[in-house]
Amino acid sequence: MQFEELGLDERILKAIEEHSFDSLTKAQEGVLPITLKGKDVMVQSKTGSGKTLCYLLTIFEKYIRCSGKERALVVAPTRELAVQIEGEARSFSKYIDSYSVGCFYGGVGYQKQNRELDSALVVGTPGRLLDYAKSGKLDFSTFDIVVLDEADRMFDMGFYPDVQEMFSKMRKPEERETMLFSATLSVKVQNLAWKFMNEPEEIHIEPEEITVKNITQELFHVSKDEKFPLLLSLLKKIDPSSAIIFTNTKERALEVAERLTMNGYKAKALIGDMEQKKRLKTLDELKAGAITLLVATDVAARGLQIDDLELVVNYDIPEDYENYVHRIGRTARAGKSGKAITLACEEYIYGLEAIEEYIQMKIPVLWADECSLEPVEDKSSGYKAKKRYNRLEKGFSGGRKVRERGTRRDRDDRRRRNENGEKRKKQYPARKKTHDNSNIKGKVSVERKTPVPEGVVARKVKLSEVPHEEKKGFCAFIRKLFSKEGR
Ligand code: ADP
Ligand code: MG
Questions:
Q1: Distance between CA atoms of residues 154 and 182, nearest Å
Q2: Is the C or the N end of the chain the one with fewer CB within 10 Å?
Q3: Which of 229, 226, 466 is CA-nearest to residue 346?
Q4: Which of 315, 294, 325, 317 is nearest to 214 (CA)?
């Protein structure tokens, strides 16, 4: 379906034309004809399926049809997302005269944002929007269209009470158009839809075949110690204009970024502990080409829109198989092609089987010594992590604790509340005692399921020193060891 078939105003079509999109995405095809008629929708569709335009185009069209009287609100879970939406909104509304967009999120001064509060389109995170409502500067009852983007994530992050509060301050569901977008429609999301929407049409867009189709995937078996040198060789050979390197921990992300810098690369770490402002800045630097390599954890990269990446490297195999697809999906967005390289070491190889089962294919294995990879001198070979607090440059929060707080940290108001809206005390689950070991003294021996065959002596070897043929067998052995039949 073409955008022209939707009957949109010329000014909107003109802006779309500039983006040279061929046709509507599946999600847009499913949603736009319904929302343009003014019906409520709740939409489940994968990341990257073009949901943003589903609601933005509806909002713009309605604005024009009502000669500028319609006001719209888009609520998003994180600042990054809010900023992205604002950017797209400005870009697609640029030919609509005097259309105004305001974006509101925590972590920046209130003064700066005050003047945009009466914009035709208000985009924001729940905490900050409610703050404005409480101080009487924002009236939720003035909105004619309300959009909840990434509803599932919003709830993951504990915004359920905030969202409820916002809806309670709005007009009745029949007096506005409400749209809800989510990657999954959980029971919680559906409950909310029942409560605050007007007979919404439920739209499930078939997950476009997992995006890995357009991505060239490669996997190298490598020992933990040899990962970094291999990364250097790979980077030298591919020489990507932009790449993300994913690690499983933030310590590793900081280390890899630092070592890459020591080797002359323009690299930076992106971790969940960083302040939002700094994360956004880092991202902008990547987009502008000021840095070419971003070393990120899953938490830090979640929800960020980073297009046109040439390469994704899984420095560590993700422990959660879905993250593999999220990570490599950063390249080859919206039908483009890209490359993803995974380094499988002894520490994280146990995650591989689940990933391959999930993507329903074996990731092709390459061997470093067969790929004409040049060894590169590692200028950081004696690298030792400096004390943590030294590594925490300005811009990282706290400076003492280096604990990954995950999405909770992403919240702009930093309040912790339970579902009923009460402030929550810190709670840690009681540790389960699995067995009584109080009477065990000295060395504990573990009973092996399979006895070590006689004559077998364990030795520590470097993978690079093992003859090639033997190595293949060895890696196959390791994979088997971690596979279902091996367990
Ligand atoms: P989602 O919100 O579903 O994760 P987005 O709305 O962020 O997806 O869109 C992902 C990318 O696809 C964006 O870069 C966007 O510009 C692009 N895009 C949107 N619609 C189209 C289209 N019809 N054709 C090609 N690319 C599109
Ligand atoms: Mg989106």
A1: 9
A2: C
A3: 226
A4: 325
- Please state, in angstroms and rounded to a whole number, the distance separating the CA atoms of residues 475 and 137: 63
Which of 194, 188, 182 has its CA nearest to residue 158? 188
Of the candidates 10, 37, 5, the residue with the CA atom closest to the CA atom of residue 23: 5
Ligand 2 center from residue 319 Cα (angstroms): 24
Nearest-ligand number for the alpha carbon of 30: 1
Q: Looking at ligand 1, which atom is closest to the CA of residue 24?
A: 23
Spatial separation of the C-alpha atoms in residues 74 and 30, rounded to whole Å = 20
Residue 411: the pLDDT is 46
Query: How much is the pLDDT for 130?
Result: 95
Among 201, 219, 260, which residue's Cα sits nearest to residue 35?
Answer: 201
Per-residue pLDDT, 348: 93
Give the H or E element holding residue 51: helix 51-65
Which ligand does the CA of 50 lie closest to? 1
- Please give the distance, rounded to the nearest whole angstrom, from the Cα atom of residue 76 to the centre of ligand 2: 9
Q: How far apart are CA 487 and CA 483, in angstroms?
A: 6
CA 263–ligand 1 middle distance (angstroms): 36
Please give the average pLDDT of every successive group of 10 residues along the chain, which has 487 residues: 91 92 90 95 87 96 91 93 94 93 87 82 95 93 95 84 94 95 83 89 72 83 92 94 93 95 95 78 89 90 70 93 84 70 93 88 88 88 63 44 43 49 55 52 48 62 70 74 63
Phi-psi region of 153 (alpha: psi -120 to 50; beta: other; left: phi over 0): alpha
Of the residues 6, 52, 153, 326, which should be mutated to test ligand 1's pocket, given the most ligand atoms within 8 Å of the CB?
52
The bound ligand whose nearest atom lies closest to the alpha carbon of 88 is 1
Number of other residues whose CB lies within 10 A of the CB of residue 459: 5
Cα–ligand 2 centroid distance for 274 (angstroms): 22
Contact 32, 56 (CB under 8 A): no
Please say whether the beta carbons of 321 and 344 come within 8 A.
Answer: no
Tokens of 234: 């790979």
In terms of Cβ atoms closer than 10 Å to its own Cβ (0-12, 13-18, 19+), residue 378 is middle
Assess whether the C-beta atom of 48 lies below 6 angstroms from ligand 1: yes
What DSSP assignment string belongs to 210-243? -GGGGEEEEEEE--GGGHHHHHHHHHHHH--SSE
Strand order in the sheet with 267-270: 267-270, 293-296, 243-246, 311-314, 338-344, 215-221, 365-366
- The domains of the chain, with CATH numbers, are 3-205 (3.40.50.300), 215-398 (3.40.50.300), 443-481 (no CATH)
